Amino acid sequence: MLERSVNYEILSPTNFLDRSVKVYPDKTAVIYGDKSFTWTGFQERVFRLANGLKALGVGPGDKVAFICPNTPPMLEAHYSVPLLGAALVSINIRLSANEMSYIINHSDAKVVVADNEFGNMLSSVVPELTAVKAFINICDIDDSMPLDGPEYERFLADSPTDPVALVIEDEREVLALNYTSGTTGRPKGVMYHHRGAYLNALGELLEFKINPDSKYLWTLPMFHCNGWCFTWGITAMGATHVCLRKVDPVEIYRIIAEVGVTHLCAAPTILIGMSVFAKENNVRLSNSLEIMTAGAPPAPMVIQNMENIGANITQTYGLTEVFGPHSVCQWQDKWDDLSPMARAGIKARQGVAYIVAEHMDVVDPETMEPVPRDGTTMGEIVMRGNNVMLGYYKDAEASTEAFRGGWFHSGDLAVMHPDNYVQIMDRKKDIIISGGENISTVEIENVLYTHPDVMEVAVISVPDEKWGEVPKAFIVPRAGTNPDPAQIIAYCKEKMARFKAPKSIEFGPLPKTATGKLQKFKLREKEWEGHDRMVN
To answer: Which Gene Ontology BP annotations are present (predicted)?
Structure first.
């Protein structure tokens, strides 16, 4: 470790707050409903929370778990906990009590802070949380206090505003633990470090063009990759955080209009909901709105639908293991005159590495040699750089496997275009091998999204006696439509190679994670029950 000197300082995203307080002390930092805080007021709350946690015995190396939607306490935790040298464990609010219990215990959390909407559920597993020393209730929806501990605002009021200095000695100390979705077993704790979070937060500012006048709406869960590091990035620029408890198109468009929101992030499934609502209610944006989307490869039609109402879409790509976004579909002027659908097709690519990330390639996972830049040959996306995790908490074997060959292995299959832009074709586990031919489920989904009766879709492999496996599409129809499966299959055969078209269609809701990712493994489990095929 380098010693601090005239030409070296520890990089930590907690440093951004102090700068914004000095530059913009009276500027609005946070808006939540009818509440707002200046940067000075927000820092005072951060110091109160940090001092209160410190009084509970929280210090370097400890873990503090937060179960909270996108409200001010969740944002405050991103500064208070790391200042103490502790690690923030932001837990997915849509998990079951047992899943939350596993994460709290596995992370060795010393303190648990829970919004009372979720505290009631958590109270059923409190006896299992033997390592937890204290609970704190956030009473946002009502005055109930389901956990044995103080109320959050009272806890802050009883704590001093004395400044709290960052206590870490190494910028690669653990800043946060983010748990994966656990679709292939128990979730793994991804260890973020201060240096990576600092650099990725700056990367978000560069790629998303945040400025001090920006107003960022929190439609992206802060528990997901620490809000893709925007929890720190918005602060770094002295812009305004606009908190949102529940993602709902009516509320999103109301706040956009009333507050003057300029930026938001959302998974494609959120964009689908927003575009459907906009179409049904004739919504047009009166001001410029920048939207960053990631979490799943977006269909070009979804991008075009949002841009039709006046938004500008930027697609990024990453994983929990790389602090959220690692690459961006960097737009170039030479594409300006393309047709709307052609523009959307380019914007659906995963693009090139962030300026602060630098290293991303598509390789043969066996030889680790780069695939030809022909837009056709598939390989695995691999990444390395300052924004790669330290590893999985208490799981050295999984960490070694993820880092084999000196790169982080994403598990995503992609092609590299001649212009060095990456485009995902599928997850390794989602690719369909039918009669020896590789079929991309993403390619089929993109075609289906152009059908006027299709709102959402997921394509998986299902067993077939002749071909081994074939595509099947699960579709959520648009409201007011009654699509015919045979007609939709025929539509696909007109738009792509006939052997790639789904052989069957099923209508109904799709299983998703809290961050909007389709849980295809649940669909596969049902379809492959009793058959010899990996379902995860």
So the answer is: fatty acid metabolic process
With 0-12 / 13-18 / 19 or more C-beta atoms within 10 angstroms meaning exposed / middle / buried, residue 65 is buried
d(CA 307, CA 339): 13
**SS3 for 154?**
helix
The residue whose two tokens read 């079951």 is: 96
pLDDT above 80: residue 528: yes
pLDDT at 534: 44
Is 511 within 8 Å of 474 (Cβ atoms)?
no
CA-based nearest residue to 80, from 27, 13, 6, 179 = 13
Give the three-state DSSP class for 121.
helix
Q: Which CATH code for domain 431-528?
A: 3.30.300.30
Going by C-alpha positions, the residue among 302, 226, 273, 237 that lies closest to residue 70 is: 226
| Cα 84 to Cα 62, 79, 270, 329, 399, distances in angstroms | 9, 9, 35, 37, 26
Q: Is CATH 3.40.50.12780 what the domain over 247-427 is classified as, yes or no?
A: yes
With cut-offs at 50, 70 and 90, classify the pLDDT of residue 388. Answer: very high
The predicted-structure confidence for 146-183, as pLDDT tens digits, reads as follows 999 999 999 999 999 999 999 999 999 999 999 987 54
Determine the 3-state secondary structure of 393 from DSSP.
coil
Is the confidence at residue 535, as pLDDT, over 60?
A: no
Coil/strand/helix, residue 506 = strand
Domain locations in the chain as residue ranges: 14-29+36-199, 247-427, 431-528
Contact (Cβ atoms closer than 8 angstroms) between residue 271 and residue 296: no
Please give the CATH number for the structural domain made up of 14-29+36-199. Answer: 3.40.50.12780
Q: Among 275, 252, 309, which Cα is nearest to 449's?
A: 275
CA–centroid distance for 323 within its chain? 9
27, pLDDT greater than 90: yes
